[in-house]
What we know:
Structural class of chain A: mainly alpha
Distance between the termini of chain A: 53 Å
Largest interface: A-B, 93 and 74 residues
Radius of gyration of chain B: 24 Å
Helix content of chain A: 55-70%
Number of strands of chain A: 1
Low-confidence stretches of chain A: none
Order of helices and strands of chain B: HEHHHHHHHH
Structural class of chain B: mainly alpha
Order of helices and strands of chain A: HHHEHHHHHHHH
Distance between the termini of chain B: 50 Å
Number of helices of chain B: 9
Number of helices of chain A: 11
Helix content of chain B: 55-70%
CATH class of the largest domain in chain A: Mainly Alpha
CATH architecture of the largest domain in chain A: Up-down Bundle
Number of domains of chain B: 2
Low-confidence stretches of chain B: 1-11
Oligomer: heterodimer
Strand content of chain B: under 5%
Strand content of chain A: under 5%
Amino acid sequence: MNLIDILKKKITQSQIWRSLFRHGYADTERNRSLQVNSNWVLHFHPVKVKAYSAKFRYVWCMGGITFFLFLVLTVTGILLMFYYHPVTEYAYQDMKYLQSDIAFGNLLRNIHRWGAHLMVVTVIFHMLRVFLTGSYKPPREFNWVIGVSLLVSTLLMSFTGYLLPWDQLAYWAITVGTNMAKATPFLGHEGPFPLVTKYNDVAFILLGGTEIGGAALLRFYVLHVVFIPAIMIIGMGVHFWRIRKDGISGPL
Amino acid sequence: MKGNKEQDANNNNGVRFVWPDLIYKEFVAMIVVTLVLIGVSFLWDAPLREIANPGKTENPAKAPWYFLGLQELLVYFDPWIAGVVLPSIIIVGLMVMPYLDRNPVGGQYGFSRRKFAMINYLFGFALWFILIFIGTYLRGPNWQFYWLWESWEVEKHLEEKLWSFSPFAGAAFIGAYFSIGMIIPVLIKKGIVKYHGVVRYIIVMTLMLGMYFVPIKIVLRLFFNVRYVLETPWFNI
Lengths: 252, 237
């Protein structure tokens, strides 16, 4: 036995190593089950799936890619938070600063922006796939409902993030969007049957004022980085857990 | 189903271990997405225009692309419908869909055994994206229609003389549309109400007729210059 083998054995059989990696890579059924069951990341999966339902042409990977993009956006988003002030005096300057003065700042922003657009696309196509395969049918009805709320949350995430660069594109896009809120029946002051005024309708609550300004920027920022992601994380937890319990759909 | 289960237990037929058969696919997908995202981000910069200026209106001011279908509908509907009621109905309609669809066929692709669900869903899906396409690429300054090859520099002013149905005709039109729409399937397909149940049938048909009302209104506006089908002192449809 040479030195490397002895060393390898010493390390892999040490208490520390075995506490981290609980089993090896032996190709046994028991080990394959353990790989999934004893790993925090992988245990979102069932141990076994139907062969049909693991095929790319059946699942398209869209749901998984959507979740992966959520993670990418979380990481890049947290990094962007280091350079961003949700204040009208600074927000736009921070964008310029990010573009020109911060190492990889522009790349970071690009990944966050394009990743967000891609996530909207993948989540819509995930829904299309689930519809086309009839995977919302019993016992998965409620998971579809959660899925629809996650789709809406994704759109709201993208919408609230849209204002943050504080440029003309952001300002007027959000103006178009929030003007619609003013037309809400009963709850918007420009809608049919208004029960509210300009100073207490849904648009006012959303913007923290009658028009888009510092208060709106701060509200959208808080919604974007804390409020909606928190709801989404809970929603995704339930969504994945129920897939884990019900299995991926497939022909009986 | 039972026979299949027994077969699976006997020879593992049709079942795969997640490790590594599924995990590696997810891993490849992650790598591909990462590479694509980094590649795209190197090639194209995220847009950044001049600093926000409430005094200087962008023309056209466009919502984010995924809401442009709704913004495009502002041409045909008042904001309370295009911006609030329609999206709410879409969301609620999608959420209740699994409880409305009594057809048990699932877990596979296939058009022929789920024609009704497929046609209606895909129609709505296509409508959503067609409207987004029009709103994104075919609308220029003042929300005028520009073909892809037309320059936005050329100003367009569309003079349209719009008219509305009289309140009585409008109410009759909408009433007739929904009631005839409700009745026709009953006459054509025997037992359809019994199959769905009365309440479920009414909800399904209301949602469906509501969806098809959108293109009907678009046609009325584009080809017959109809501004409102139903005009009242409080709201217009």
